[in-house]
Amino acid sequence: MKDIKLKHQNGKPLEIKIKGQKIGRGHYTMIAGPCTIENHEDLLAIAVELKKMGIHFFRGGAYKMRTSPYNFQGLGKKGLEFMKRVADETGMISVSEVVSTEDVEMIKEYVDILQVGTRNMSNYRLLLRLGKVNNPIILKRGFSSTIEEWLLAAEHIIEAGNSKVILCERGIRTYETYTRYTLDISAIPAIKELSNLPIIVDPSHSSGRREMIKSLSWAAIAAGADGLLIETHFSPDKTVCDSKQTIDLEMLKDIIEGNKKLLNLWD
Ligand code: PEP
Ligand code: MN
Q1: 11 CA from centroid of ligand 1 (Å)
Q2: Residue 15 burial (10 A CB sphere; 0-12, 13-18, 19+)
Q3: Of 118, 150, 228, 230, best ligand 1 pocket probe by most atoms within 8 Å of the beta carbon
Q4: Which domains does the chain have, with CATH numbers?
Q5: How many whole angstroms separate alpha carbon 151 and alpha carbon 141?
Q6: What is the dihedral angle through the alpha carbons of 5, 193, 132, 65, rounded to the nearest 10 degrees?
């Protein structure tokens, strides 16, 4: 790894500014919201509650990459329209996944931050296209990718012209089956050592288990993560997608309270 010359990732920590918010070292970015957008009403209700908690970023998937073709695939463009409406109604910053190269130009008009999912981390044509937009990009780690491969994927976006890349550790595949994936906590200090990019953590997809989200969130903040991305819904059991790992608003409040104490470790 030491021999790898990461042309773009040395130097002072990258600070991304968006709609009055800052993302990067020393700023703690909380992104929450449902796995998938189901309708405007619920998305707005969630975003309003998040805003009351002081959260500025909300997430929701319009295009879902489901392992089974028989599972709900997302609302598509209709979902993006809801995303934009809720961002306008609340003044919050939206995050949604782009799954295909041909969608990039369209999605960037609806969503503030574009997410690349774990299955697309090595889709270099998509990364190249994302290098041509102005929106910040959340680049999730491929679940079978090394830290080096992940950083080189980020380099593809940066080299193509967009330096606003946020890395998201979301668990890797190991032999463990109790959890959906295994959260690689060591990736956090590794990325901070090797790169100037913000590193956030998704405890939801890494564990697949609601009862673990608090511990993993706190572990991530204690390890120095610059933020969290957590699947949250006012009624998790009623969601069409990933309900087992989705937490309710009360649990999110608990996590935020604990984070305040843990962030002191890094002052
Ligand atoms: C998501 O965040 O909605 C998602 C599908 O995550 P991942 O790509 O990490 O599985
Ligand atoms: Mn999900």
Answers
A1: 29
A2: middle
A3: 118
A4: 16-266 (3.20.20.70)
A5: 9
A6: 110
Helical segments of the chain, H only = 40-52, 77-90, 104-107, 124-130, 147-159, 187-194, 203-207, 213-222, 249-263
Ligand nearest to the CA of 139: 1
| pLDDT score for 267 | 86
As for ligand 1, residues whose beta carbon falls within 6 Å of it are 35, 61, 97, 117-118, 140, 170, 202, 205
Largest separation between any pair of C-alpha atoms in the chain: 51
Distance in angstroms (rounded) separating the CA atoms of residues 82 and 69: 24
Q: Where is pLDDT greater, at 222 or 267?
A: 222
Contacts 24+ apart (CB under 8 A), 54-57: 54/256, 55/30, 55/31, 55/92, 56/19, 56/21, 56/30, 56/92, 56/93, 57/21, 57/29, 57/30, 57/31, 57/32, 57/92, 57/93, 57/94, 57/95, 57/113
pTM (2 decimals)? 0.97
What atom in ligand 1 is closest to the CA of residue 229?
2
Provide the token pair at 108: 């960037």
CA 79–ligand 2 middle distance (angstroms): 15
Supply the DSSP symbol for 144.
T
pLDDT digits (tens, 9 = 90+) for 5-33: 677 766 789 999 999 999 999 999 999 99
